[in-house]
Amino acid sequence: MAETIVMVGLALVLIVQYLGAIAIYYDAKRLGIENPSHYSMGVYVPLGGVLVIPVYVSRRADLAGTDRDEPSDSDTD
Q1: Global pTM exceeds 0.85
Q2: Three-state secondary structure string covering the chain
Q3: pLDDT at residue 73, rounded to an integer
């Protein structure tokens, strides 16, 4: 019985991490952050999301602002 509870709990944690990784990927992509997959993969790594999610959420405005403020190659022509 205890083994079943542990397995169900682990499965729920992995599902939540997977859904969180998808949400962060699309949020970072919407904000125009360079390489949004780096943040989503950081969340998807088991227990990595515990560290990456707070950092991403606290710095997302700064990350979006710095990527948008830099001129691209097409802007300088």
Answers
A1: no
A2: CHHHHHHHHHHHHHHHHHHHHHHHHHHHHHHCCCCHHHHHHHHHCCCCHHHHHHHHHHHHHHHHHHHHHCCCCCCCC
A3: 54
